[in-house]
Structures are given as structure tokens and as C-alpha cells.
Specification:
Helix content: 40-55%
Largest sheet: none
Number of helices: 3
Radius of gyration: 28 Å
Shape: rod-shaped
Strand content: under 5%
């Protein structure tokens, strides 16, 4: 399909850089960048789990146990 578009400065610079780096023509470079932006990418990184000992007396990763313990402590205060 043949059409006319107006690129902003940043988009034009990206097309020019891709053309310079790869030797592509204008249409091929613009199409490549459009396809890159349109394709949904999978997550390529993982957020590391950081563990710190907080000196807790119960396992805080088990919500039910934490709530039971808090209920127990509240009962002792009454």
C-alpha cells in the first residue's frame, strides 16, 4: 500500500538510524520499526526475590497462620 505519512523528529531519527545501521530502504526501515512496536513482547527479565530475615516467630508467607496468631494474641489482651 502506498501512502504519505509525517514522522515526528524522534520517529524520523529512529528510521534514519535503522537505515544507516542496516542499509535498509526507507519503507523497509519504517515497516520494521512499526512491526517491532506492534508485536506484543513477552517479559524478557525477571524481578529477583530478595529475602530478609525480620526475626518473625511465625512464617509470614502463610496468611492463615498469621491471622490465627494475631487472633490468639488479641484474645490474650482481653
Amino acid at each position: 500500500m502506498r501512502t504519505t505519512i509525517t514522522l515526528d523528529e524522534e520517529a524520523a531519527a529512529a528510521v534514519a538510524a535503522l537505515r544507516r545501521d542496516t542499509g535498509m530502504g526507507l519503507s523497509d526501515a519504517a515497516n520494521t520499526l512499526i512491526h517491532r512496536g506492534a508485536v506484543k513482547r513477552e517479559q524478557t527479565y525477571q524481578v529477583p526475590n530478595i529475602h530478609h530475615s525480620m526475626g518473625a516467630k511465625i512464617p509470614l508467607d502463610k496468611t492463615c497462620e498469621v491471622l490465627e496468631y494475631l487472633d490468639f494474641l488479641e484474645g490474650d489482651r482481653r
